[in-house]
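Researcher: Going back to the complex we discussed earlier. I've cleaned up the inputs and rechecked each line, so this should be the final set. Can you rerun the prediction on the complete assembly and write out the structure?
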Amino acid sequence: MLSWRLVATGAWGVALIRLWLVLLAGQMVFYLLLRVYLRSQQVERLENRWDARHPDLAGNSAARRAFVAKAMAGFGRSLRARLAVLVFVLPTLAVLVIVIAVNWQ
Amino acid sequence: MYYVRVVIGVLFGILVFGLLDYTLPSQNTVRVSNTYNRLTEIPPSASIFWAADSSRVVENAQGQRDVRFIDAVRPNGNVFVYRNEDTGWVWPPYFKYDSANLQAEATNLRSDARDPIWVSVTAYGWRLAWLSTYPNAIAINTVAGPDDRPANWAAMIVCGVLLALLALIWRMWAQFRDRGLRNFRKGKA
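Model: Rerun complete. Updated structure for the full complex:
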């Protein structure tokens, strides 16, 4: 009865690293999907803008594709694209908030 | 085929509801009547209702775990039993490692029926008597009286965030259905 032991299967630090790896993998997948979505949305917006400006040239054409490609060149530096990086920040922040909220008296 | 889809949909809905009901924090106004440790046999079939081995649990050579318990009484007189275990860095994501402090708080707030101290215990999990499972207590706060039921902000915020995420994923899926990956194929549209 006196032989107490800490269960060794899966140490505490290993669990923390595993949590971090799972979180990182999930964030990377979600970031890629979000990026595809934001770009797709922006392209659609640009196509609609072209069609509104050139009613006679509406629809898919080489000129419209060139316009969209040129306008999309700087999309990576836009606020919307930069805010997508929050995918990597917010979950970690949430974990920190939960740790403090749960373990604070 | 239609009925198969309906049945699968209903089962999925029940599964999601059950998962949220088990995982989200719930609050109950109770009176703490006793706090103690007990050597507990944890059958493998019910181990998902107990803390993971990686959260620094202590067992004896027979494999019995030393678990902290909190006995409580509800305002209507029914009793309720909480366990008090660290969750560590695994599911459910409470990251709790202050169960010793919590046990001390609960012991400090112990009271009897003649001179009750009413507290609001935040916990997750289910009390299933036939499986011997207990909700895991997360926090204890004193309240004004047996009828005082503080708002469960944590669960509301989590539900709000989950709904927002669901709406975003739904929008992303709709955009993909609508346009595919067309702007990722160079030149062709």
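Model: Worth noting: The CA atoms of residues 23 and 56 of chain A lie 50 Å apart.
Researcher: Good, that matches what I expected from the previous run.
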